[in-house]
Design brief:
The complex is a heterodimer. By secondary structure, chain A is of the alpha+beta class. Chain A is 50% helix and 13% strand. A 5-stranded mixed sheet of chain A has the order 6-7-8-9-10, covered by helices on one side. Chain B is flat. Classes of the chains: A alpha+beta, B alpha/beta.
Chain lengths: 485, 411
């Protein structure tokens, strides 16, 4: 180990001084020093100090370890948990510079966790660790229960994992109770106030259907099944809720990957440049910083994209170049006379870190110029190959951007909702895929439907569109049946 | 409020939290391989002599399925500025979505297929088979021909076996003794002290006896017209299992293929599985042939003999008596002798059966199974090996143990 705890503490003091000066608003921070084996362990369990057991985490561990052992991929420098106090791990074999870099980077994440709306509205940072611990204990107790046992528990977790992402994504949107939904349906059915109703034909009154379950299509599959399958024993219901709750915790991370990593990189860059490192450490910084933030041609490095975008936003607002669509009417100011923390650019990025998620971030702030600079392009499958279909030029850039928006965060998860819990009056669960031009992968849909059926304990059908044709997927015996609608 | 740094505690003081989940995962892989073993067997040549041959095993049950987008979803990626519409960014058909799916965390497409060597596959197959008595059977001591060992020294021998160190030592010893007894100054420059014949020492090489573990597998198969492709495929899979199993246990394993209809002959593997003969069936002919070959080449005192016969049970009635007799003789020389009746998809109802005839065999090392479909293979094989334990009926219920068969056959 090339450093000791006191040394880290001294660096941390300096870093925190800067953090405070820049106005980052963090949770208290805790660091735990671990070795690479523990790091692999934490990675397999999504960083959580305690987590319910399931074979898939063993699989994840084996895969990470194999990749690490064969040098395919290194370990991340940092692993940080959205909790209050914020918990992060430092790998003991890393150099001092990497530790300092990681600490600075972690404060960036910490600030983001504490302020971004996806996190503040959707997660309860104070009780995250307890929540995971508590769930782990409950699942362990089902393992040990002689009337349940590990095999049955793992089966249920398998089914639950299959549809865990099939839930509402934007946690800031409040969920309405059944009563409120019914009220809304009734209100909608009423004729709207029409000043010209004398000359308009009276629209026919259609009574809202109050008997239908769900009243409106529901995205939360796990919670829906837990609530509406009356035959589920209490422990299965509990597992479904646990899996859903933990997925909810990870939703904001998925939703803000680019912003979050970009934000943390922006700040570690700023802080480390301000620290006046000795020359050898500074040279290492240049190397490491570039490793983390280099573009990945043929892919997309969220660290790089986010970092570039935050800088671009700051620059544009400082220069008064706030874009045609997002004009800012405040008078132009001479930035050089202002305190660095009080420039319009800096104020803007602090505002955006609170109010946006990746999809809106890209839509609002990824400009054509920046896309040009990054050489973003869109690719599609043609036969066996993937082919470039659009590049960011005059006519293509918006399409490329929209494709990017669709594929980040939860955009890569199909939207599937429960339409009817009693389809055909025989408790068939009717699911509908809200098609946006992208078809489902049928092999996966087939098996996932089986998982749903095991939880629902009745037939499950899925409406989707395949090659432009409306289709109904049904699992019959061993095969998937596709009916044209 | 100050930041807390928790120092490193060595791993040995912590428990390995993922140990159990890793074990569960491995168990899943094994189960998955076992479930697919029927399919895997169909692909392999029965004599998979190449231990390192790599087999691709699709592992279905450890895939984590979710709803994901398919092939027609576009992706966005960063380029180097040279991309034009129409450029190919990814060749070939990669499983699942390729790279360049854009940023963000893909829900994770895992095309999980594992490559294992044949050796590993077999190990997994037999891992928890809980092998019966077989392992306890004493291996036979055989004077093996090629294994030799140095054993002591001799005064005479051939040049290549000269032990130079011992020879030089002998000479020095003699020199010193000459000097001591006669007082002759042998150190003088002019005095030579050459090697003498008595100094010479040669290694002696003796042949050793070794615990030889020889085994021979007799694959006897009915190749009469009634044995169709499906039946042969099932038979072949069974032989594969048997061969692999025996190979696990013995160092030196040979395989003999005997094809019979009304006459039997020894054939190479390819003919065994691909040639279809026509005509009727004398099962006894196959057994006689096996007995002859055992007499000629594989004496039971030197070889562990495993014989298995696959047939669809259609035998000429007049041959039954002779077949029974020959089978009993085989039982006497074999470690295990089995008869598998292959009746795919309900053909049991209209064709003959040898089960009743062979049911009369009393020998403990005889075993009968019926194979109707792929899934029966493993169960049948298990019960075949379990024979020594005296548990004739497996949980599967398709297997007719000797004692039960005898009871059924008794009037």
């Amino acid at each position: 180990m090339s450093f000791n705890i006191e040394e880290l503490g001294r660096w941390d003091d300096k870093i925190r001084e800067l953090v405070a000066r820049y106005g980052l608003n963090c949770y208290p921070q805790e660091f735990e020093v671990c070795d690479h084996n523990e790091m692999l362990g934490y990675m397999a369990y999504t960083g959580m100090p305690s987590h319910y057991p399931h074979w898939s985490y063993g699989k994840s561990y084996e895969r990470q370890k194999t990749m690490y052992d064969y040098g395919v991929s290194g370990l991340p420098y940092e692993m940080v948990i959205n909790s209050n106090p914020c918990l992060a791990y430092l790998m003991r074999d890393n150099s001092l510079l990497l530790q300092v870099l990681t600490i600075s980077h972690v404060y960036g994440h910490n600030d983001f966790f504490a302020n971004n709306f996806t996190f503040t509205s959707g997660t309860d940072a104070k009780h995250v660790l307890e929540m995971f611990k508590n769930a782990a204990n409950r699942v362990a107790s089902y393992h040990e229960d002689p009337s349940i046992g590990i095999d049955e528990v793992e089966d249920v977790v398998d089914h639950a994992h299959a549809i865990s992402y099939q839930r509402s994504r934007n946690l800031a949107i409040q969920k309405l109770s059944d009563e409120e939904l019914r009220k809304r349906a009734w209100e909608r059915a009423q004729p709207s106030a029409d000043p010209w109703r004398d000359i308009h034909p009276t629209p026919e009154y259609v009574a809202p259907d109050f008997t239908k379950t769900p009243a409106e299509p529901v995205e939360d599959l796990l919670l829906f099944i837990a609530r509406y399958n009356p035959y589920l024993p209490e422990w299965k219901r509990d597992i479904l809720q646990i899996v859903d709750q933990q997925t909810q915790y990870f939703m904001p991370q998925m939703e803000t990957k680019i912003m979050n990593e970009g934000w943390a990189s922006y700040w570690h860059h700023k802080i480390l440049n301000e620290l006046r490192l000795p020359q050898d450490m500074h040279l290492e910084l240049l190397v490491r910083h570039n490793q983390v933030l280099r573009p990945h041609p043929g892919g997309l490095n969220p660290y790089h994209l986010g970092f570039v975008m935050w800088h671009d936003i700051e620059r544009r607002w400082n220069e008064g170049d706030t874009g045609r669509e997002w004009t800012d009417d405040s008078p132009k100011v001479d930035v050089s006379t202002l305190d660095e923390n009080d420039t319009p650019g800096r104020r803007k990025i602090f505002e955006v870190r609170e109010s946006d998620r990746d999809q809106s971030f890209l839509r609002r702030f990824l400009t054509r110029e920046l896309m040009d600079e990054l050489h973003l392009f869109q690719h599609e499958r043609r036969g066996k190959e993937r082919v470039v279909t659009k590049v960011s030029n005059e006519e293509g850039w918006k399409d490329v951007r929209d494709t990017l928006i669709k594929s980040v965060g939860t955009g890569s998860i199909p939207v599937i909702k429960v339409e009817d819990a009693d389809f055909g009056r025989n408790r068939t669960l009717y699911l509908k895929h809200y098609h946006d031009g992208r078809d489902l992968q049928l092999e996966y849909a087939d098996h996932t439907l089986r998982h749903v059926a095991r939880l629902w304990e009745r037939e499950v059908v899925l409406e989707t569109s395949i090659n432009g044709k409306g289709s109904l997927l049904k699992v019959v015996g061993d095969s998937l049946k596709i009916e044209r609608l | 409020m100050s930041t807390i740094f928790r120092p490193y505690t060595p791993t040995s003081q912590r428990s390995d939290r993922s140990a159990r989940d890793r074990m569960r995962h491995r168990q899943k892989i094994k189960d998955s391989i076992r479930d697919n073993i029927g399919d895997i067997l169909a692909e392999e040549s029965i004599i998979g002599r190449d231990k390192d041959k790599i087999i691709k095993v699709p592992i279905r049950s450890v895939k984590e399925y979710r709803f994901i987008y398919g092939e027609n979803s576009p992706g966005a990626a960063q380029g180097d500025g040279n991309q034009k519409p129409g450029d190919v960014v990814e060749q070939g058909n990669q499983d699942g979505q390729g790279q360049g799916q854009g940023a963000g965390s893909q829900a994770g497409v895992d095309a999980f297929e594992t490559d294992i060597t044949l050796e590993e596959l077999i190990a997994i197959m037999f891992d928890d088979l809980e092998l019966p008595e077989l392992e306890r059977k004493a291996l036979k001591s055989v004077l093996s021909e090629d294994a030799r060992k140095r054993k002591g020294h001799r005064k005479a021998g051939i040049r290549p076996r000269l032990d130079k160190r011992a020879t030089a030592r002998n000479r020095i010893r003699r020199k010193l003794s000459v000097k001591g007894s006669r007082g002759v100054d042998v150190e003088g420059e002019e005095q030579r002290f050459p090697f003498h014949d008595d100094d010479m020492s040669y290694f002696h090489i003796a042949p050793t006896t070794k615990e030889a573990s020889n085994a021979v597998v007799f694959c006897i198969m009915d190749t009469s017209g009634s044995m169709g492709t499906v039946k042969k495929y099932l038979a072949r899979s069974f032989y594969f299992l048997l061969y692999q199993f025996v190979r696990q246990k013995y160092a030196n394993v040979e395989v003999v293929f005997i094809a019979h209809h009304t006459e039997a002959k020894e054939v190479p593997e390819t003919d065994f599985f691909h040639k279809v003969e026509s005509g009727g069936t004398y099962i006894s002919s196959g057994y006689r042939k096996a007995l002859d070959i055992i007499n000629d080449r594989y004496h039971p005192s030197l070889w562990n003999i495993y014989a298995f016969h696959c047939s669809d049970g259609d035998n000429f009635y007049s041959d039954n008596e002779r077949a029974l007799q020959a089978a009993e003789e085989l039982c006497k020389v074999c470690n295990l002798f089995g008869y598998g009746e292959i009746k795919p998809s309900g053909s049991a109802y209209y064709s003959g059966s040898m089960l009743e005839v062979f049911g009369q065999i009393q020998a403990q090392n005889f075993h009968m199974i019926t194979i109707e479909k792929k899934e029966d293979l493993w169960e049948g094989f298990r019960s075949f090996l379990m024979k020594d334990r005296g548990s004739g009926v497996s949980a599967h219920g398709k297997v007719f143990g000797n004692s039960e068969g005898a009871a059924a056959a008794a009037p």
